[in-house]
Amino acid sequence: MSSMRYLFIILLFIKLPVFSQLIINDTTTIYGERILDLGDVQNSKFCTIKQKDTVITYTPNQVKEYTLQDKRIYKSYPIQINLKNERFFLEQLFQGEKNLLYLSLDKGFKRFYVLKSDSSNILIEIPLIDYKNYLISVFKDCKTALENVEYVNYNKSSFYKFYNLYTQCTSKPLTRTRYGFSLIGINTQLNLKQLATFLYPDEKKNSLSFGAGFQVDVPISNTKFSFHPEVNYRQLSTNRKSFNGNTTNDLVINIAAISVPLQIRYGFYNQKISPYLQAGISYNRLLRNESNIPNYVLINNSQQMTVYDEPLFQKNMIGYNFGCGVLFNYSSKKSIFIELNLNQIRNFDFHSSLNSIDDIMLKIGVLI
After folding, report:
1. How confident is the model at residue 339 (pLDDT cuts 50, 70, 90)?
2. Mean pLDDT score of the chain, rounded to an integer?
């Protein structure tokens, strides 16, 4: 009994091969064939099987259908190209009341077809020219999904995303490159540990400021991830006094900066409300970098002043940030977002790296 238990455990860790299947005709199906994936173009022309040291190639005239190991299905159909009828294997992207099929050939030739799952069994080509109007006429039974037609490109990835939304009959935005504008409220904490001896011991200063930003959201393939760069502008002016006996320090800082966060975003996309998380690094360029600390010392009823006026921050700073937000999708074209970000920005120089800028940023904007 114990030996059988050990054998079962060993089998759990053995990766068993996953095989494909091949349908020769309506009545003959062969399982266990290792079908090679040679890319969209070759898969459209041939079904290639490897049996030990032998490679066998079938044409669309010989095989009705085949399935690759990743479950992609190719079916044989007669296609008319340049007034010539010829059979090809079309990849079945979606199956439903309207099946979506895809053909890729040499020299960048790509076509999409709709096959209605009714008795007519008619294969309809989606034309390359004026394909958006054609999509509106074919998929008019779901008007909400048609709001995304404007953003459909004639490629496999874009058609796949659109058809997925159509099958759900949802108006949530099609995953695409989007642009946004935002107003930013910033609660800033200046960490000035390098100057703790001057400030006795008030080394932190919180200040409120405002800014504005522009952003781009670029989807990464068909995933829920996107590349999300931004360009933000902000200004900060602050001053603070500190006292120690007969010494008074007056901290004055004026900063204007351009910040360029480079982030990766993960979205939980829904029809109306879409929360998201993001994180990344940022490059910060200080356009105005003014800081000084007048130091007043009272000696024998006479006040003496010295000024520490070296910049507390470098012109070029680097930081990291993470945050979360929510998109409110009031159409497939536009969304309002509210976002909360935490950022820490440090000097490049090691000796002044003790000085940093910590931001809590609240953004409100529009994404189109």
Report:
1. very high
2. 82
Q: What is the 3 state secondary structure string of the chain?
A: CHHHHHHHHHHHCCCCCCCEEEECCCCCEEEEEEECCCCHHHHHHCEEEEECCEEEEECCCCCCEEECCCCCEEEEEEEEECCEEEEEEEEEEECCCEEEEEEECHHHCEEEEEEECCCCCCEEEECCCCHHHHHHHHCCCCCCHHHHHHHCCCCHHHHHHHHHHHHHCCCCCCCCCEEEEEEEEEEEEEEEHHHHHHHCCCCEEEEEEEEEEEEEEEECCCCCEEEEEEEEEEEEEEEEEEEECCEEEEEEEEEEEEEEEEEEEEECCCCCEEEEEEEEEEEEEEEEEEEEEEEEEEECCEEEEEEECCCCCCCEEEEEEEEEEEEEECCCCCEEEEEEEEEEEEECCCCCCCEEEEEEEEEEEEEC
In this prediction, residue 16 carries a pLDDT of 37
Higher-pLDDT residue of 357 and 184 is 184
Bridge partners for 297 per DSSP: 247, 304
Report the alpha-carbon distance of residue 216 to residue 182 in Å, rounded.
Answer: 11
pLDDT > 70? residue 201: no
- Domains of the chain plus CATH, in order, are 17-126 (no CATH), 132-171 (no CATH), 178-367 (2.40.160.20)
Residue whose C-alpha is closest to residue 155's, from 124, 110, 114, 113: 110
Spatial contact of 90 and 125, defined as CB atoms under 8 Å apart = no
Q: What is the mean pLDDT of residues 322-335?
A: 88
- For 11, residues 6+ apart whose C-beta sits below 8 A from its C-beta are none
Q: What is the pTM of this model?
A: 0.66
Tokens encoding 314: 């470098």
First to last CA, the chain: 65
Band of pLDDT at residue 198, cut at 50, 70 and 90: low
* Whole-number pLDDT of residue 13: 44
Give me the mean pLDDT over the 67-83 stretch.
Answer: 90
Q: What percent of the chain clears pLDDT 70, i.e. is strictly above it?
A: 78
